[in-house]
Design goal:
Number of helices of chain B: 19
Mean pLDDT of chain A: 86
Shape of chain A: globular
Distance between the termini of chain A: 48 Å
Strand order of the largest sheet of chain B: 1-2
Shape of chain B: globular
Strand order of the largest sheet of chain A: 1-2
Oligomer: heterodimer
Structural class of chain B: mainly alpha
Helix content of chain A: over 70%
Low-confidence stretches of chain A: 504-520
Largest interface: A-B, 35 and 31 residues
Structural class of chain A: mainly alpha
Chain lengths: 532, 478
């Protein structure tokens, strides 16, 4: 493959955004169609990735690498089984988000779609970067469009919500930046060459104390993004205030950047530190599961209910990640996609209700299903997918996650099951209050059922839900090799190290025998410690 | 090589200043912009002459003035900054009752001061340059004669500036007493002797640091900055925030480049600078949070940036320092250019409330200002991010991890107040009717050049970075 397909997928939305800048402000429908066209073409291009991706290979594929700024800062893209699905999830949901904003966004249409396209580029960039510098650039740059999307098109407390979101995320990522600097200088001191390549850092053997600090730096950034309890406080605010499309992308993809960060960086880079922090992290994930579920039970606003359900579901995903076995990690990756689909869909559904009623309070609804029968069916499917009904996608992911957790710790698994029970409780109770019962609000009598556009973006999601629920192998197959490689990095580092250095001798020019590099690096670290 | 050619760029600038002063008498008051164009021609000439001396290592006056590669690069940078400021002033001085042809002559004279400061290794000559710069700056600050704030700015700048100069001279006297020279290499030799520096030498260098600390506005010598920045005409403020600060840091670069490696007992000075850096980052950013006037916010932001630049000195990342200065030039002049764009005859809109709703009303000014603010806050993919990246990563490599943690947390604080301006521009409904005179092609040119600079340096800084590294590498090591 000589065509730089990953760059194409990443930067096509940017091209779209630049094009939109030069389209007159008044032509709002042209803006909508152009945004839709660009997101659809991006999705089509990303399908090429899907068809050409070889699930048997653990290493990143579609590699594009060229020098950029020197000193280890390269333009290096590639995807493996872990990032492939996240890229596809992003490109799949983006046209849907654009469609959902078709009538929802009435003012400043041009700017809205420009920021949506920039956001898409930023998110894809995060998932495809293999150079830490590039990763960080996308990671931070993606905040800017999200900041505007919430701040300009959001609800009444949008300014507070957007600043909280940006500042909390920045707090974590700036500390991660310091940790990146430390890694950068450690690598330089150990080998005498500059590098910011993730796969070079995998080779570094770090002393456990330094690992602990670095893990804190990286882990905090990702934990805020996921968000794990107690760093979740930005999430309900951001979700409630964001416009529908913003919420969808936030829940479906942005949160996955945190879990992805754990899988890509925190786990394989700092296995010793991970071991030390594992109990704490598992407890935080469990608290998140139960706390999020309980909070969701008492929400009055449908949107914040879905937001808290995210906290609970993401807790389960993190717990599965920390189980550190193939079932758990596969389940976590699968559940990331499921959560993206089902929570994204639930936010879309809340958006549909809001567009009709201009309220999101549960008590203002009741008996909607009699007016909107088709809608109520769709709502029920999305909801059951989130609850984890067998036959739908959520079930497969949750079962895998729980298997993984059970293998690691039975007690944790028993507690973690509450995520499913609580989800059934808060979601079905909400459904009952909103959709059934007598019509209390006269406005509801004038509700129209789903129109073609709304059907158009809900149907693909529903199809995916069934597909992923009935035939998960199609998806899991692609991730197998990468997941087992990841686990090898965590558990049997020496083995991986030997394999890789045998395969790419050029990377170890300065170290004639790879096995001796371990102690040499160790020594450099000890020297560094002493120097400090 | 000892050659008069090393003075050519300087001579071009000074000649320009004198000719502009003379011409002013003959030009009608409403055609003052001709003087601006004449000044631009002289700036271009100076820049060309500087480029021609790249890699020649020209010197004059027994090496007290040397046009080494760093000086050439900075001459180009400063000429660009002054050219931007002149372009910004063309319309502004007519609008804001500062219509005096002297502004162009004074700017050129100030530029000559900057050039002397950055191309000398003798502290006494540097002091001469500083005084040329300062005297022109005092006059520039008070250019809006009828405006009380402008008068206050000029007087405050003058009084405190002279005070700082006095410290500097006294420090020089002590240093001369200790090292028998004001030539930087010889002073460093004095500090490098096995016995360590004499008390007199230490005292002298402390006083010199106070003097320069004032010029580059580091805490605790920053008190003048907000008032002067607020009162001075806005293009002049843009110049103040970039020119004198950059020159001051280049002097520090020349002093400390060899100092760290040679000097004995440098820890005292190291920790003094460390403390100043931390204080500057914290105080500058925290106080900026409370400001409601955008010019004052930018003043405190400029103080905070001095803190980050000190980190570069401490980390011995000199090419990072110069890169930061270049990036800072584009983003800060760009931000001030946007402020100048938001004005009409007799009125400037500088309160945060005035910014409500600006973003959608004036998309180009709002959009570019947002980019500059995001760059100042250090968001990728802008120059501000890359500059911070280089400086902080070098600091980590030098083992200054606590300093970097403080630095990044301080810049987190700065994100809040930079984004607050963006919040007002895009997320608030317009309050007071803001009505600007949009017809200002020179301003748009500056905005776009700065935007280009911020993005070019942020995404593809390759060549600029290479030039800076070469310039630093060619500096003499004693």
């Amino acid at each position: 493959m000589n065509f730089p397909i990953l760059s194409f997928v990443t930067f096509l939305p940017v091209a779209g955004a630049v094009l939109l800048i030069f389209v007159s402000k008044e032509k709002t429908s042209l803006h909508r169609y152009l945004a839709l066209a660009f997101t659809l073409i991006t999705f089509a291009a990303s399908l090429v990735l899907y068809f050409n991706f070889d699930g048997a290979i653990a290493d990143p594929q579609f590699i594009e690498k060229s020098g950029w700024l020197g000193y280890g800062i390269n333009y290096h893209l590639g995807i493996d089984g872990i990032s492939l699905w996240l890229v596809l999830l992003t490109t799949f949901l983006m046209p849907i988000a654009v469609l959902s904003s078709w009538t929802y966004i009435q003012k400043r249409v041009k700017e809205f779609f420009i920021f949506m396209l920039l956001l898409e580029a930023g998110i894809i960039g995060v998932f495809v970067s293999l150079n830490l510098f590039l990763f960080y650039v996308f990671w931070e740059a993606m905040l800017i469009p999200m900041y505007f999307l919430i701040g300009v098109w959001g609800g009444p407390r949008r300014v507070y919500a957007t600043l909280k979101f940006v500042l909390m995320t920045m707090f974590g990522s700036l500390l991660m930046l310091v940790a990146i600097f430390v890694l950068y200088s450690l690598y330089y001191k150990a080998t005498g060459t500059y590098s910011l390549e993730i796969f070079d850092f995998y080779k570094l053997i770090l002393n456990p104390r330094i690992q602990g600090w670095l893990f804190l730096g990286f882990g905090l950034a990702f934990a805020i993004k996921v968000p794990m309890f107690p760093f979740h406080t930005w999430l309900p605010d951001a979700h409630v205030e964001a416009p529908t499309a913003g919420s969808v992308i936030l829940a479906a993809v942005l949160l996955k950047m945190g879990t992805y960060g754990f899988l890509r960086f925190a786990l394989p880079l700092f296995p010793d530190a991970l071991e030390k922090f594992l109990p704490l992290l598992s407890v935080l994930a469990l608290i998140g599961i139960i706390y999020g579920g309980l909070m969701a039970l008492i929400q009055k606003d449908i949107k914040s209910l879905v937001a808290y359900s995210s906290v609970s579901h993401m807790g389960l995903i993190m717990l599965a990640v920390f189980s550190l076995n193939p079932e758990g990690i596969q389940g976590a990756i699968y559940q990331m996609l499921n959560h993206g689909l089902s929570t994204g869909a639930l936010f879309l559904i809340v958006g549909i209700l809001y567009e009709r009623a201009h309220t999101r309070l549960i008590k203002d609804f009741g008996g909607v299903s009699s007016q909107m029968p088709v809608f109520s069916a769709f709502f029920l499917v999305c909801l059951l997918s989130s609850v984890g009904l067998p036959g739908l996608n959520g079930f497969v992911g949750e079962i895998l996650c729980l298997f993984g957790v059970f293998k690691a710790s039975q007690l944790q698994a028993i507690l973690a099951v509450s995520t499913v029970i609580l989800a059934a409780a808060y979601l079905l109770w909400m459904y009952q209050r909103v959709m059934h019962g007598p019509i209390t609000n006269e406005k509801i009598r004038s509700f129209k059922d789903l129109n073609k556009r709304e059907l158009g973006y809900l149907v693909p999601i529903i199809i995916m839900m069934f597909w992923m629920g009935i035939y998960p192998q199609a998806f899991l197959r692609k991730t197998d090799a990468s997941v087992s490689r990841l686990l090898d990095r965590v558990h049997n580092r020496e083995k991986i190290f030997l394999q890789e250095s045998a395969r790419t001798p050029s990377l170890n020019r300065d170290r004639p025998v790879a096995t001796e590099a371990g102690p040499a690096v160790e020594q450099a670290l000890i020297d560094l410690e002493r120097a400090k | 090589m000892n050659s008069l050619a090393s003075l050519y760029p300087l001579l071009a600038v000074v000649a320009g200043a004198l000719i502009v002063l003379l011409l002013e008498v003959f030009i009608k008051k409403d055609r003052r912009d001709y003087l601006g164009f004449v000044s631009l021609a002289f700036l271009a000439a100076a820049a060309c002459l500087a480029v021609l001396s790249w890699n020649k290592g020209l010197m004059y006056f027994q090496g007290t003035l040397s046009l080494d590669n760093l000086a050439v690069f900075l001459t180009l940078l400063f000429s660009l900054a002054v050219a931007f400021v002149i372009l910004l002033s063309l319309k502004y001085i007519g609008q804001q009752e500062a219509n005096h042809g002297e502004i162009f002559a004074l700017l050129l004279l100030a530029l000559s001061g900057l050039m002397i400061m950055t191309s000398s290794s003798d502290l006494l000559v540097i002091f001469l340059g500083l005084e040329v710069l300062s005297v022109s700056s005092y006059a520039l600050a008070g250019l809006r004669r009828k405006d009380e704030k402008s008068g206050e700015a000029a007087l405050k700048y003058f009084l405190l500036g002279s005070f700082a100069s006095a410290f500097l001279v006294l420090g020089l006297a002590f240093l001369f007493g200790a090292a028998r020279s004001t030539f930087i290499p010889e002073i460093i030799v004095h500090f490098g002797t096995a016995a360590g520096p004499s008390a007199m030498g230490l005292f002298g260098i402390a006083l010199v640091l106070v003097g320069f600390g004032f010029k580059i506005a580091v805490v605790p010598f920053h008190m003048w900055t907000p008032d002067v920045y607020e009162g001075a005409p806005t293009p002049v403020t843009a110049f103040f925030s970039v020119g004198p600060k950059a020159a001051g840091f280049v002097v520090l670069l020349r002093v400390f480049m060899n100092f760290w490696d040679t000097a004995q007992n440098d820890s005292l000075i190291f920790w003094a600078l460390w403390t100043m850096s931390v204080l500057t980052m914290i105080v500058g950013n925290l106080v900026a949070l409370r400001q409601t006037n955008v010019k004052r916010i930018l003043a405190y932001s400029s103080i905070a940036h001095a803190g980050y630049l000190l980190v570069a000195i401490l980390a011995r990342d000199y090419s990072g320092l110069v890169f930061y200065l270049a990036a800072y030039l584009f983003m800060n002049i760009g931000a001030f250019a946007a402020l100048i764009g938001l004005s009409k005859t007799g009125t400037e809109y500088l309160e945060l409330d005035d910014f409500a709703g600006i973003g959608f009303r004036y998309p180009w000014i709002g959009g570019t200002l947002s980019v500059f603010l995001l760059s100042l806050a250090g968001f990728p993919p802008t120059a501000g991010f890359l500059a911070k990246f280089y400086v902080f990563s070098a600091a980590v490599r030098a083992g200054l991890i606590p300093l970097v943690v403080i630095g990044v947390l301080a810049s987190l604080v700065s994100v809040f107040y930079y984004l607050r301006i963006v919040v007002y521009m895009y997320m608030r409904e317009p309050g007071r009717e803001v009505d600007i005179e949009a017809d200002n092609p020179a301003l748009l040119l500056v905005l776009f050049l700065c935007l280009y600079g911020v993005l070019q340096l942020g995404i593809f800084p390759g060549n600029i970075l290479l030039i800076i590294k070469q310039a630093i590498a060619s500096l003499p090591v004693f």
